[in-house]
Amino acid sequence: MITMLSINLNLLTTLVLIGFLSLSRTSEAAPANGYSICDNTTTFTQNSTYHSNLNLLLSSLTSNATIDTGYYYTTTSSQDSNSAVYGAFLCRGDLTLSTCQDCVTTAATEAVQNCSSSKVTLLWYDECMLRYGNVSFFRKMNESPSAYFPNPLNATEPNQFNKLVAETVTGLVPVAANAQTGAKKFAMKQVNYDGFEQLYSLVQCTPDLSSTDCDQCLRGAIELLPKCCDGRKGGRVLFPSCNIRYESFPFYNLDTSTPPTTPPPLPPPPQLPGSVPRSQGNDEQISSWIIVAIVVSIAILLSLVGCLFFRRRAMKKNNVIQEQNVGTEINAVESLQFSFATIEAATNNGYMAPEYAMHGQISVKSDVYSLGVLILEIVTGKKNTNFYNSDNGEYLLSHVWRHWRDGTLLELLDVNLRDSYSRSEVIRCMHIGLLCVQEDPDKRPKMQKILLMLSRYSLSMPSPERPAFFLHSRTDPNMPSMTCSSSDQPAGNSLSLSVNEASITELYPR
């Protein structure tokens, strides 16, 4: 049994860790690699002067695709001014010269194939843009024709995500627009938007634009985001003179981008009290994933072990009842009397959710209760099974909740943590723990919400209600009688209990 349990623990931990690591590496659906617009209102005939000039222009663009700025504009003309062809390409600012040239070459080839007779053509790719026409567009800001591509995946918290996207891309506009004349008008940024996912953003203008025109073009593209990409995990708006893009996966070369930063409204993820300080960059992300995976896997394992223990205990209990030949049945909940020992045994030494232990009711919130107990034990340095306050007749969860109500939570902090701790982090962790052990399972947060609470200070949290099996103190003048709340009772209802002094003495102080 012990060997099987060890194997299951290793397997469970591995599966949960892989699942959480995969959250940041999930393959996202990106826009089509190539998108072309062929204006058929103005066409040319094969083997015409315009056709010859176009071939010369495409050849010139391809051969100059290794220019450092990633942008090149040229014109080919002849004695017939109506046969002049104007063209340009723009490569993404983070690309190598060879990648830029490959993209421009592909674009030139597909332009001839897809728009064989169009005088005005525009092609967009992930890596570059190529355009040509019979009218000069040099140093002119053009917002049409345009195209946009939303990512098919939805963000988990669309309103907050939309706000973060808008703030991030808007902040990149002056960086790109104010670049020196002739330099790349290009900016990109990586920010963290929850405990384990990143937002990657990019804006770019053609270098021939003035700062004012670039600023205007990018802001016009940003205004289209609510229309095209509201609540989506990624989006792309393409204008002839500029473009913007954001995704939840890296679509540009990270080694050429600015270091990941966190926007002012979203401070760095809080660190659990007692944990080892995290390193920067990828080490910080990996540490966060491992901590989350271990905590969640322990909670799941406790639930599985508790299920087996409960079944075994239930079988023993049935045997005892049969041997004693108990002839009466308890038909009304109001007649139940619980001792501390009964509560401790029924909740699997304090980790099993009471509604499951006492009534067999299991849900996704059962593991949340176990996680809450673990958090409170870690912060206080006390085990739920070994704690009993003889002065107030409290066990650990009710003791923590009473200090929360009185505003004295820091008095419960583990002495080993008092030399180095953050007051706000300690209170936040205990706040989350109390939310997890609330009497009503429906009011306990889901695991996904808990992850956000642990990683985002900007996320507001409700006040916790009393924990399950909260025992009122007989010495508290505001609570004259001892009552025990059952999780399946309506809000506000409680059961009157007789005080079992013998069972109280079974629990000893730490």
Automatic annotation (TrEMBL):
Q: What is the lineage of its organism?
A: Eukaryota, Viridiplantae, Streptophyta, Embryophyta, Tracheophyta
Pfam annotation, one family: Stress-antifung
**Annotated Gnk2-homologous domain residues:** 32-137, 143-251
Q: Extract the SUPFAM superfamilies matched here.
A: Protein kinase-like (PK-like)
Q: Which PANTHER family match?
A: CYSTEINE-RICH RECEPTOR-LIKE PROTEIN KINASE 9-RELATED (PTHR32099:SF42), CYSTEINE-RICH REPEAT SECRETORY PROTEIN (PTHR32099)
Q: Where is the composition biased (Pro residues)?
A: 260-272
Q: What is the protein name given in its UniProt record?
A: Gnk2-homologous domain-containing protein
Annotated region (Disordered), positions in chain: 257-280
Q: Which UniProt keywords apply?
A: Membrane, Repeat, Signal, Transmembrane, Transmembrane helix
Cite the Gene3D superfamilies for this sequence: Gnk2 domain, C-X8-C-X2-C motif, Transferase(Phosphotransferase) domain 1
Signal sequence annotation:
1-29
